[in-house]
Amino acid sequence: MKKTALVLLMCMSVAAFAQDADTKSDVKTKKAQAKEISSEKAKAEMGKTLHGYVVDQMCAKGMAKKGDPMVRAAKHTKECALEEACAASGYGLFYENGKWIKFDDNGDRLAREMFESSQKSSDFQADVTGEIKGEKFIVASLVESKKPDADKPMKDDAHHGHDHK
Q1: Same domain, 123 and 67
Q2: Same domain membership, residue 96 and residue 21
Q3: Separation of alpha carbons 140 and 132, rounded Å
Q4: Residue 94 in contact with residue 100, Cβ under 8 Å?
Q5: Which alpha helices (H) appear in 47-135, and where do they start and end?
Q6: Are 118 and 78 in contact (CB under 8 A)?
Q7: 4 and 42: one domain?
């Protein structure tokens, strides 16, 4: 009888321990799932893609001062973007109806490579993916866009606000 009671007590202990282990396992699984969702959300935020016109910072300052900067950015030329002073100022993106964001060093390098390798002379639209930190866009990728712009600017006002001297 004592043996039976002891075996029964051991079985109950094992069952209770197993149930506790399952509960702890469920908690760990739920925590892991929550962490995974949080990680995916962080990746989505870091992987923000903006579409717009790539322009050097020197020219962007003039474009932002008068008229529609998106129209002026569409006319910005490869020749200008690669001018020594313009290129040295770094690059950025006009997006969403004229908002401007400056690229980090990697973005500057990728933008310069885009200008150098492009067959186009103006209308440098790009899809730029990265993370906005303060007033800079930390660029992970920059791809020259092949899609036509629905709001294609008209061909007047070609000068964009500075001399190259």
Answers
A1: yes
A2: no
A3: 11
A4: yes
A5: 57-65, 69-75, 78-81, 84-88, 105-117
A6: yes
A7: yes
Q: Which domain holds residue 7?
A: 1-46
Q: Look at the pTM and tell me if it is higher than 0.85.
A: no
Query: Are 28 and 9 members of one domain?
Result: yes
pLDDT in tens, the chain (165 residues): 555 554 544 545 545 545 555 555 555 555 545 444 433 444 444 589 999 999 999 999 999 988 899 999 999 999 999 999 999 999 999 999 899 999 999 999 999 999 999 999 999 999 999 999 999 999 999 999 875 543 444 334 444 455 554
Cite the beta strand spans of the chain per DSSP E.
Answer: 48-56, 91-95, 99-103, 125-133, 136-144
Looking at the fold, whether 20 and 58 belong to one and the same domain comes out as no
Residues 60, 32 within the same domain: no
How many Å apart are CA 46 and CA 34, to the nearest integer?
18
Please tell me whether residues 42 and 53 are part of one structural domain: no
* 80 shares a domain with 2: no
Q: Give residue for tokens 């995916």.
A: 40
Q: Which residues pair with 122 in a beta bridge?
A: 77
